[in-house]
What we know:
The complex is a heterodimer. Chain A is mainly alpha-helical. Chain A has 13 helices and no strands. Chain A has helices spanning 2-30, 38-56, 59-83, 88-107, 132-136, 141-159, 161-171, 173-179, 183-209, 221-231, 236-255, 265-284, 287-293. In chain A, helix 1 (2-30) crosses helix 11 (236-255), helix 2 packs antiparallel against helix 3 (59-83) and helix 3 runs antiparallel to helix 9 (183-209). Chain A is globular and about 60 Å long. Chain B is an all-alpha fold. Chain B has one domain. Chain B contains 14 helices and two strands, in the order βααααααααααααααβ. Chain B has helices at residues 12-36, 41-49, 56-82, 89-106, 115-141, 145-165, 200-217, 219-229, 231-236, 241-268, 279-289, 294-318, 324-339, 341-344; strands spanning 2-6, 345-349. The longest helix of chain B is centred in the C-terminal third of the chain and has 28 residues, at 241-268.
Amino acid sequence: MDFTILILQGIIIAATPLLFAAIGELVVERAGVLNLGIEGMMIIGAIAGFSITFETGSHTLGILAAAFGGAVMATIFGVLTQVLMSNQVATGLALTIFGLGIAALWGQAYSGESTSSLASLDIAGLSAIPVLGPLLFSHDVLVYLSIALTIGVYWFLNKTRAGLILRSVGENHDAAHAIGYNVLGVRMAALMFGGACAGLGGAYLSMVQTPLWADEMTAGRGWIALAIVVFATWKPGRAIFGAYLFGGVTVLQLHAQGFGIKIDAQYLSMLPYIVTVIVLVLISRDKTKLMFNAPGCLGKPFYASS
Amino acid sequence: MIKLELRKETSRVMLYSTPIFAVLLTIAASMIMFAILDKDPIKAISIIFMQPLSNTFSITELVVKATPLILIAIGLSMGFRAGVWNIGAEGQFTVGALCGGCIALVFYNVEGFWILPLMCIAGILGGMAWAAIPAWLRTRFNANEILVSLMMSYVAVLLLSALVHGPLRDPDGMNFPESRIFSDSAILPILVEGTRMHIGFIVALLVVVTAWVLLSRHIIGFQVKVLGLSPRAARFGGFIESRVIWACLMVSGGLAGLAGLFEAAGPVGQLVPSLPVGYGFTAIIVAFLGRLNPIGILISGFVMALTYIGGEAAQIQMNLPSAVTGVFQGMLLFFLLGIDVLAKYRFKWFHHHHQKGT
């Protein structure tokens, strides 16, 4: 029983950074922008969170710095793609290469250092409940924040006027512009939100999952988050499911040897990537369904001619 | 206020001069970065950009670095023109090295002129096979080739590591995760005695010329361009989209695989887990900096090789962190993409009384 709880807790820890990054990108894509630079924003969040926590001893400052760092990266992307009309795919790749470089430069002084992990909240009374306590009520604040953020995004997109405007900008930017909505403003705001979320996801890696700094510690999670958005067909509720599914695969890989499965570690480490490909194939197979769900102006440049 | 106005035609002058501006802006920005890092900016820039050109040996090293970048970037540029985004060249490079390297290890005790050509074929086929995965999944199941090709890169690097730790490990190698060092028959001929400059560079030059002829003089080049500019028009024109996707991924995968084999049979001389060092990703920047044009890629391949060689020299002489090269390359691509706006748009000043509404 204890072992099962341990694994389920592991899944939550593995899924949280993916959920942060995916829910941020989901909002960005609903606004019609394709930011492939999640990996770059996450790694900046990871080093910002780690270094600020290391220097100040304050996890709160570290978390804020991570969100801020991710948002700054997203702003660079926004200026290039939305103001200077650069190609979104190429700019997203550049953001990843640049982010990995800057993070390695910044992190050089912290290589091999570690900090205390973010403490879990242990909600009074509830965390003592057997099974449910350790599963639901004794996590760190970021786990709860990721869930709250997902619910918040669902509410924002579906129940608020601002969410409707954001979706209209993503569906048809020319029409939204003609009505008088500020396409550029909406997209920049969405991008900065997405960047902050990716930054938080990165911070979760360097502050909770493995509270130490290592170059390229994001290891492709930013790209997996992109796949989760497609998997979720741009719906927040399904993004939670997707993130926990991928988190599960990661944890399974770590524990497989514990179950007595004798396979080299490298083959097991391939699992999350292979599962991503398989899931992507299963989701994309139905072309019409995918087109029906994808935001109409996803990845298209917006040029206001009047 | 300033407003962007779409040019009727992309400016040719701007198209070819923006890469130069981008390099200059990157140099300026990195000088600021060096100043922040408390290093002499002038000295750093001269070490990175001048020193590698000052003696014959470092020029040959430049060629060694530029060869894989040019080979991979030529292949990628075909796809990028057509809107087929293969960003998994790193994986195709790795599998190419692995397949070609296996031939070298199987015929470890055999001598023969045919071993190297066989290794090259295996390298190309290996790269193509790895690129066939995203090609098939894209054409058959509509799966996004960006994500699939990238995920397969992670798998390829892990596969190399697994095999070098296991079946391909050198039996006399004290358990180090390395293969045997290739026999002389499986090592690329050296062009300049006493250096590492190998025959792969000649192959890269031939590939550049072939690509240039194909793109500017052959129907394939036209089809690729049309598909990139307007997939709808391409469909009306009777081009089969899936065929172009396959062609782009096979060409880029094959060339990346060949580059990987050249790396294993050239400067490295064996299979090691650290063989993939990011050429597959850097080549994306090379392709864009070279304007997706074969001749441009030849030049930009050397510029990017300069940042590697010069970056290494600066690391040793000025104690600069190795990550500087990555930052430099990222900035270069940013500046290039940012000032590209000058080729497609022109800036126009608007006076307030001319404005109607917002």
